[in-house]
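Risk register update: the risk of archive-format incompatibility is retired. Evidence:
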Amino acid sequence: MNKIQKLGLAALFSAVFAFGHGSVTPQEVDTKGLEPLGEEWLDENPYKTDNKKAVEIGEYAYGENCARCHGLNAVSGGIAPDLRALEAGFDGDEWFMERARNGAVRNGNVYMPPFEGVLNQEAMWAIRTYILSLPKE
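Archived output:
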């Protein structure tokens, strides 16, 4: 195999792995079927894990926007925090929503993009509900 073929294969594998867990551009989520939450951001998750629609929408939204860094089914591969480890209730909700809305930047490096303006709060809370519905290992 010559150098050009090897370079082509390397580029192909890089593209496959880069997009293997979804796009790198935040994706909008259709939240039709969820109770509208209004313009004011809530402090606590209004959806419960028995809300099947919230879990379903959250699973899709997570796969499109979170899995590439936080891992499939929220099982982190070490790139980003394991979101299943967040505590349930207000403290976990508060941390999750602050990070989801504002992203994370350290020393000028973007570790997580802000999702406010791309995802509405219904989508963000649906993601949180999906994560809470997963078994902790």
